[in-house]
Amino acid sequence: MDTINIAKGKVLLAEPFMVDTNFKRTAVLLCDHSKTEGTVGFILNRQYKAKVGDIVPELESFDAPLYLGGPVQKDTLHYIHNVGDLLEESQEVGEGVYWGGNFEKLIFLINNGIIKPSNIRFFLGYSGWSAEQIKEEFELGSWVTADLDHNYIFGRYTNKLWARIMGNKGNAYTVIAQLPDYFAWN
């Protein structure tokens, strides 16, 4: 069993047989965690059917995918990026990984070609847990944690991300990563 290591900058991996469709086989980057305030994160491997330009008209020509960050407030836009030194008000989540920042400046930097799609990931909504809720779910075996790797966020392929991160944990997790999504019984 994984030790409880819930903290900003960690990645939560759903256990392989989680039935909650919001989180089945997801990898969630934790961007904020407080034992009194709760936890906020973004699902890294649920690409949405639209592009960011479909949601933000000022970014119409910016060819960046949009992801479903979680089931909470799906009408809000969030972003994770690697340009915290250029974007004021960003919060560092992990080494070289930032959350949020000044939105008007972000649009300016994107429209002037300074920020590329490979520098940023946009999310509709977020994943959120009240104080102690994530710990309770963890103790029930719903989640395991993994260390953050820059490529998990800014890499090109997200469709197999859950299995890749689970496999990178090694040992028994390598076997778990190879389990099929559904079992067919004879």
- CATH names the topology as VC0467-like
Whole-number radius of gyration?
Answer: 17 Å
Approximate shape: globular
Give unreliable regions as ranges: none
Content of β-strand:
25-35%
- The helix fraction, in percent, is 10-25%
**Largest β sheet strand count, sense and barrel closure:** 10 strands, mixed
Q: Taking all residues together, what is the mean pLDDT?
A: 90
Number of helices: 6
CATH superfamily, by name, is: VC0467-like
Order of helices and strands: EEEEHEEEEHEHEHHH
> Any idea how many domains?
1
Q: What structural category do the secondary elements indicate?
A: alpha+beta
CATH class: Alpha Beta
Explained architecture:
By secondary structure, the protein is of the alpha+beta class. The chain has a single domain (10-177), classed as 3-Layer(aba) Sandwich (VC0467-like). It has helices spanning 52-55, 103-111, 133-139, 150-154, 161-168, 172-177, and strands spanning 10-14, 27-34, 38-43, 47-51, 65-68, 72-81, 91-94, 97-99, 120-129, 143-147. Strands 1, 2, 3, 4, 5, 6, 7, 8, 9 and 10 form a ten-stranded mixed β-sheet that branches.
